[in-house]
Amino acid sequence: MYKYKDMGFRPVDEGDLEILRKNRNDSSTLLNLGGIDMVSSEQQKSWWHGVSRSKSQQWFCIVKENYDSVIGVLRFQDIDPVNRSVEIGADIFPAYRGQGFGKKAYQMALEYLFNHFNMHCVYLQVTEFNETAVRLYKQVGFVETGRIPASIFRSGKYWDKLIMSLLSEEYFKK
Q1: In what order do the strands lie in the sheet with 143-154?
Q2: Each residue's pLDDT tens digit, 73-119
């Protein structure tokens, strides 16, 4: 487990699958994801068996305080060890939102990725209507570096997907 202040992250285990599935299917999470398909228990197990063998992605449970309360999920996708880049994402479960856990989760992940995993570029994608997330990402150092126009359909209209990134030299300047 990687510890940071009063929280940490650890690999997803099979026993975590139901809480992850339940929170993924929650509409406040689901509508902010790239795909909006809800998943069954069997689909969740199948997903986990695939990603647990992957070298290009890693999934973690975000835990707090006593390190056994799962409050969210953290993912590293498209891990590129040659070019030292990775896409990052985190979802804090609805009951824990608005309490600063999202900001700490990204600070924790960035510390791990830049100080221990030797990444050079960490990037993410976020839908432009998710203003709370965009504000959070800017607070921890991400800057908008691109857009994929009209690529997400929600609430009856198309929205841009923002690409935000943070380079190691910018991270270490802080």
Answers
A1: 2-4, 7-11, 58-64, 69-80, 85-92, 121-127, 157-167, 143-154
A2: 999 999 999 999 999 999 999 999 999 999 999 999 999 999 999 99
Instruction: State pLDDT tens for residues 17-53.
Output: 888 888 887 776 766 677 778 888 898 888 888 888 8
Distances (CA, A) of 28 to 15, 45, 92, 119: 23, 22, 11, 31
- pTM (predicted TM-score): 0.91
Domain boundaries, the chain: 2-173
Residues 6+ apart with CB under 8 A from 164: 123, 124, 125, 126, 134, 137, 138, 142, 143, 144, 145
**Contact of 24 with 12, CB cutoff 8 Å:** no
Q: Cα(49)–Cα(66) distance, rounded to whole angstroms?
A: 28
* Cβ atoms of residues 111 and 5 within 8 Å: no
CA 114 to chain CA mean position, Å: 16
The residue with tokens 């992605």 is 57
Rounded-to-integer distance, Cα 52 and Cα 66, Å: 25
Q: In this structure, which topology does domain 2-173 adopt according to CATH?
A: Aminopeptidase (3.40.630)
Q: Give the pLDDT confidence score for residue 30 in this predicted structure.
A: 64
Residue 37 contacts by C-beta under 8 Å, 6 or more apart in sequence?
A: none
